[in-house]
């Protein structure tokens, strides 16, 4: 009986410490020190929530950079159903899907270069907001044509929105598609304003 009571007290004590006190402390400190990051890195425009820097979005218009495919359930980039397709690299269904995506990219962009792998394969979470520099540069011609911008202007936007890893062996530089498209909208609006005031 004594052993049972000691075990129960220890269970309750550890539950309070690790299940209540510690999470409250960490959440409180995170909100105090990093409030924007702790609340999901949410982006607002005109007091309206338009997305998060941490979760990808599906962009379908020709004048936007496209994200990598998302295999989340019900709809692309569904943060409530994070996950991959679970198809093995040897599965013919995956190969067929990738082949279709390659054909769509070549048809839409009229670009005969090799389609970067991250534009035709989904990430493990299905929520990745980033693409490789190769994937961003692959889309430049289409964006320049659709937005009536120069390639140099778009290349500069890509450079400005590129994130490099802390150390080179930890990965490659990536571009956040959502933030890049926000910068693209801003540049287009500034150029239109200049034209209208001339």
Automatic annotation (TrEMBL):
<dbReference type="GO" id="GO:0005524">
    <property type="term" value="F:ATP binding"/>
</dbReference>
<keyword id="KW-0406">Ion transport</keyword>
<keyword id="KW-0633">Potassium transport</keyword>
<keyword id="KW-0547">Nucleotide-binding</keyword>
<comment type="function">
    <text>Part of the high-affinity ATP-driven potassium transport (or Kdp) system, which catalyzes the hydrolysis of ATP coupled with the electrogenic transport of potassium into the cytoplasm. This subunit acts as a catalytic chaperone that increases the ATP-binding affinity of the ATP-hydrolyzing subunit KdpB by the formation of a transient KdpB/KdpC/ATP ternary complex.</text>
</comment>
<keyword id="KW-0812">Transmembrane</keyword>
<dbReference type="InterPro" id="IPR003820">
    <property type="entry name" value="KdpC"/>
</dbReference>
<keyword id="KW-1003">Cell membrane</keyword>
<dbReference type="Pfam" id="PF02669">
    <property type="entry name" value="KdpC"/>
</dbReference>
<keyword id="KW-0067">ATP-binding</keyword>
<dbReference type="GO" id="GO:0008556">
    <property type="term" value="F:P-type potassium transmembrane transporter activity"/>
</dbReference>
<comment type="subunit">
    <text>The system is composed of three essential subunits: KdpA, KdpB and KdpC.</text>
</comment>
<protein>
    <recommendedName>
        <fullName>Potassium-transporting ATPase KdpC subunit</fullName>
    </recommendedName>
</protein>
<keyword id="KW-0630">Potassium</keyword>
<dbReference type="GO" id="GO:0005886">
    <property type="term" value="C:plasma membrane"/>
</dbReference>
<keyword id="KW-1133">Transmembrane helix</keyword>
<keyword id="KW-0472">Membrane</keyword>
<keyword id="KW-0813">Transport</keyword>
<comment type="similarity">
    <text>Belongs to the KdpC family.</text>
</comment>
């Amino acid at each position: 009986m004594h052993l049972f009571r000691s075990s129960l007290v220890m269970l309750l004590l550890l539950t309070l410490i690790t299940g209540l006190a510690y999470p409250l402390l960490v959440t409180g400190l995170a909100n105090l020190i990093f409030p924007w990051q702790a609340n999901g890195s949410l982006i607002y425009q005109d007091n309206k929530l338009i997305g998060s820097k941490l979760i990808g979005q599906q962009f379908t218009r020709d004048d936007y950079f496209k994200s990598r495919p998302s295999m989340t359930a019900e709809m692309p980039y569904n943060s409530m159903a994070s996950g991959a397709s679970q198809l093995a690299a040897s599965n013919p269904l995956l190969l067929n899907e990738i082949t279709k995506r390659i054909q769509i990219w070549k048809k839409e962009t009229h670009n005969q270069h090799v389609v970067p792998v991250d534009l035709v394969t989904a990430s493990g979470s299905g929520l990745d907001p980033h693409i490789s520099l190769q994937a961003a540069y692959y889309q430049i011609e289409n964006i320049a044509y659709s937005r009536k911008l120069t390639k140099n202007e778009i290349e500069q936007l890509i450079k400005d929105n590129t994130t490099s890893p802390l150390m080179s062996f930890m990965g490659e530089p990536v571009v956040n598609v959502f933030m890049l498209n926000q910068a693209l909208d801003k540049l287009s609006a500034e150029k239109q304003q200049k034209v209208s005031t001339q």
